[in-house]
Amino acid sequence: MSAIAAENVSFAYSDRPILRDVSMSIEEGEFLGLVGPNGSGKTTLLEIMLGLRSPDSGRVELFGTPVEAFTEGTRLGYVSQHSTDADSMMPVTVREVVEMGRYPHAGLRRLTAEDHAIIDEAIADVGMEPFVDRRISDLSGGQRQRAYIARALASEADLLALDEPTVGVDADVVDQFYDLLTELNEDGITIVLIEHDITTVSEYADTMACLDGELYEHSETETFLESGALEQAFSSARAVSSRQVAGGD
Amino acid sequence: MAVEQGRQRRGLGLLAVGIPLTLLAFGVFIVWIFPPLFELFWGGMETLFDGHWLVTSSFIRHGFTAGVLIGFTAPVVGAYLVNRQMALIGEALAHTAFGGVAIGLFVGASIPALNYPLAWAMVVAAISALGMQYIAVKTDGYADIPIAIMLTGGFAVGIAVISYGVVFSATVESYLFGDILFVPFENVQLMVGLALLVGLTIGLTHKQLKFITFDREAARLARINVWFYDTLLIVLTALVVVAAMQILGAILVAGMLVIPVAAAMQVTSSFNRSLVVSIAFGQIAVLGGILVSYDLGVATGPMIIITAILIYLGTLVAGRSQS
């Protein structure tokens, strides 16, 4: 079964088209690296696929259920780009952030000993034990991303979507971070990763897709790199931006 | 998954029975159990302080009790508002509530049976809270413009109604600037009920409110009903603001929602602990403010806010020296 299946998805901000007729299917257990030039609609596509945004046309299924009817939100984990700045002033500890992954499970009842055991395990899985009582805004970018991943683990997510998680993170930490994602993927979690650093992502992802308004290619990483889709997508983007420069004042 | 959904459905059924039962229990508590407790407590205080005038006057007893209740409800609700950059919503709701008070006084002057200005204020504030929520959904956020319109609009309606009708200016002033000697026992009872309601609602929904406050997008992704909890929070805010208005006045109310919370944020890194600390700061501000205001012979509402600000400045210094 596909974790995510998108069919003919189109989306525009007022009159500016962002996505044109995108169809793609992400299998369960896949580690997908989604790349594309700036403004190519990667984040928008991800938000549509997760049901955070409605497409203008087309349909999306999550684990075989139409996205509008999908209620098992705990199966989804999302580390968004603004995850890092949403928390700038609120006092909240790493442990509290990870606990949030259990909240949808708990509903109105209190967290049980079992919930707390799952939270402890999730914190241990990402190696954040030394920081549990630290305020999240005092941590480095890489540590924060780990806390958010732990939250998804505590939620028992089957699908983890990450939007440029390594922006502003030190290079050696980036490698550790990718190793963690690979481990999670080997445990059966489907991973969708938006990344600007194509070289790094191609080392870890099983499959890659290239987006620039439309989907250029979605295949095994090796086939993908040989397909020339990257050159196509990025050169068309460059052509558009140079045309804008030429047409400007 | 099916098991979990079944559990949730049973939870909803429990709520349908539980809510009316709880409200009934609150009613019983406020009407029959609270008054003797109140007498017992202040009787005890009277013996303890050897009949000092501060504990024997029934005006001051009412004021103290109301203040302590506000020192609890306002920071609790404020903790979520402040961390969502929604602090000024309290101010806007207080001003519309003032409009409600004016309407209540006006109607009450001609129809004595409807002479409950505070109840009118609650209704008007709750309606404007829902209106604000509607605008927020339509325009994608709690923007400055609707808040400014609501704030000035509510006040304009209030002043217009008052200038048209015949109302004692002392009464109007007590709602504008607050008056701790002007809290009838029914209002103390109303505030006890409100404190119970806030305590219970927050106790039950604390997790969801905290999640939405911290990471709205993730909460939506987890399919938490964000709209429902937003509405719940803003309506609770409206009720708290109306209750606090008697002591602090429409103009100063927002201070109690914001300042204790801001102070607590300086000295703790956990949200749950900041909630507890902000209640403690709220209590210190209220009790300290009342005592100082009697000592210096100045108005109580402003003194409470000034005390709260002094606490905030103190935490700024303490937080600086810590880090």
In short:
Chain A is of the alpha/beta class. Chain A has helices spanning 42-50, 94-99, 103-106, 113-125, 141-154, 171-186, 198-204, 221-227, 229-247; strands at residues 2-13, 16-27, 31-35, 57-62, 65-66, 76-79, 159-163, 190-194, 207-212, 214-220.
Strand composition percent of chain B: under 5%
- What is the radius of gyration of chain A? 19 Å
The assigned CATH architecture of chain A is 3-Layer(aba) Sandwich
CATH superfamily of chain A: P-loop containing nucleotide triphosphate hydrolases
Instruction: Just give the CATH class of chain B.
Output: Mainly Alpha
The number of E-state strands of chain A comes to 10
Q: Could you state the order of secondary-structure elements of chain B as H and E? A: HHHHHHHHHHHH
SS class of chain B: mainly alpha
- Specify the helix fraction band of chain A: 25-40%
Largest interface: A-B, 37 and 34 residues
Oligomer: heterodimer
Report the CATH topology name of chain B.
Answer: ABC transporter involved in vitamin B12 uptake, BtuC
Fraction of residues in H or I helices of chain B? over 70%
**SS strand fraction of chain A:** 25-35%
What are the SSEs and their pairings?
The complex is a heterodimer of chains A (249) and B (323).
Chain A: E1 2-13, E2 16-27, E3 31-35, H1 42-50, E4 57-62, E5 65-66, E6 76-79, H2 94-99, H3 103-106, H4 113-125, H5 141-154, E7 159-163, H6 171-186, E8 190-194, H7 198-204, E9 207-212, E10 214-220, H8 221-227, H9 229-247
Parallel strand pairs in A: 3-8, 3-9, 6-7, 7-8
Antiparallel strand pairs in A: 1-2, 1-4, 4-5, 9-10
Helix pairs in contact in A: 4-5
Chain B: H1 2-48, H2 53-56, H3 58-83, H4 87-110, H5 117-139, H6 144-164, H7 169-177, H8 185-214, H9 216-221, H10 226-267, H11 271-296, H12 300-322
